[in-house]
Description:
The structure holds two protein chains of two kinds.
Chain A: E1 3-5, E2 13-24, E3 27-38, E4 42-46, H1 53-59, E5 70-78, E6 81-82, H2 90-96, E7 97-100, H3 111-121, H4 127-140, H5 144-147, H6 160-172, E8 178-182, H7 190-203, E9 208-212, H8 216-222, E10 225-230, E11 239-245, H9 246-251, H10 256-262
Parallel strand pairs in A: 1-11, 4-9, 4-10, 7-8, 8-9
Antiparallel strand pairs in A: 2-3, 2-5, 5-6, 10-11
Helix pairs in contact in A: 3-4, 3-6, 4-6, 6-7
Chain B: H1 2-36, H2 39-70, H3 74-109, H4 116-142, H5 145-149, H6 151-171, H7 180-215, H8 221-225, H9 229-234, H10 247-251, H11 264-290
Amino acid sequence: xxxxxxxxxxxxxxxxxxxxxxxxxxxxxxxxxxxxxxxxxxxxxxxxxxxxxxxxxxxxxxxxxxxxxxxxxxxxxxxxxxxxxxxxxxxxxxxxxxxxxxxxxxxxxxxxxxxxxxxxxxxxxxxxxxxxxxxxxxxxxxxxxxxxxxxxxxxxxxxxxxxxxxxxxxxxxxxxxxxxxxxxxxxxxxxxxxxxxxxxxxxxxxxxxxxxxxxxxxxxxxxxxxxxxxxxxxxxxxxxxxxxxxxxxxxxxxxxxxxxxxxxxxx
Amino acid sequence: xxxxxxxxxxxxxxxxxxxxxxxxxxxxxxxxxxxxxxxxxxxxxxxxxxxxxxxxxxxxxxxxxxxxxxxxxxxxxxxxxxxxxxxxxxxxxxxxxxxxxxxxxxxxxxxxxxxxxxxxxxxxxxxxxxxxxxxxxxxxxxxxxxxxxxxxxxxxxxxxxxxxxxxxxxxxxxxxxxxxxxxxxxxxxxxxxxxxxxxxxxxxxxxxxxxxxxxxxxxxxxxxxxxxxxxxxxxxxxxxxxxxxxxxxxxxxxxxxxxxxxxxxxxxxxxxxxxxxxxxxxxxxxxxxxx
Lengths: 267, 291
């Protein structure tokens, strides 16, 4: 039974999971998830390693479909439409629900080509249109000032923090509604972490952001809502323990397991 | 690191309780110095308040240092916020105690003979304040929100005596306040009643923060009047070891409090500590005899 503390209402939510379960083949990984993800807010998923945070995150843009044998039950909707309904194009879904990974993964191409890649796939061919999109995306990713005079430079030649922001610019170029971030700051230095967090705060008013993080301070700092996941028994499915406004979760969690985890008493 | 942090939290909590005890005992000394015109005790009390100030400042620094270095959340953070808030209020109470000690010194210096009726009222008011402070400490040691709920009622007699004190003072006949000089001197000493009244109010403010520690809700004494004890208990959220200690351990830090001024539970705890001490002392004698 999950505990909810002022969790988002369905009306204010971009993504709604209802009685959602997930399996890797025979392994039941997640069970009974009822989660409303607030629109244009930042939601943090926290919990010990192996508790299903990233799995649930990847369910939101059907990245797990790429793994053989996975299946789901229950429902998951984006803006009221079931994303697991027959006929839904996962590629189109992933354009609307972009993803940033733990390790920055720019393409081995120029900075310009990294950002222009998505729009080109969508059919944008005009050079001036692409130039505008690249500039706008790099500006939104707070990278433009650092790379504007070296757009032809290899994306892989940038620093780790810059590479991560380049990946964010690449996602922003296709104008997603939702941004999924799977531990985006775990492989970059503190200065870059601050830049990525500032960027998230700037993007949030117009984009739904969900971040998986192992940093309690980061979750407390940047998110509006926090969800705590836990796999209590090895081999059993993980589930949502507590979900609600970040202030409440980090000041006065209602579930003992949340209290113990966020204060570092286990996990 | 978690073990070290837990130990630091527990130490901060114990220091807060220990300072609370020191404030209470110093308040007794200040009032005694005032009522008995004991200048030596008044000086000693004033020095004691300065030492309490230093302890409060140190505890505040420790708490902010823990916040800066440990990034506390949940009950750890609530505990530190609570300690800082209570610590601040202990400094305010200490200031009132120091004012009473100053008034005692002035009373001796100006050779003021306080009318017996006013002396008696101060004594009665102080007795009520000791009970409010004792109950506040009992609530903190036992994490007992029901005691906090009853503090406003305990404060009522303090305020009534304070008002009675001023009514009595205002009705005094002219011969008792023979000249301007003695009138002014007397006026300076009668503020003691006001200081006592404020000390009780501040102690209640401090103790009310227990509800935040245990529930996460910021409730004042006036909020608590409208809340049922069971309702308050149902609002409790999980807490870590810094919040939920063995009350017997906490009691060690307030064991010098007069037993008739603390809550029943705390009295039993302190008595059991004293019993343990006696057993230890007896054991010591046996060993000595055998040797």
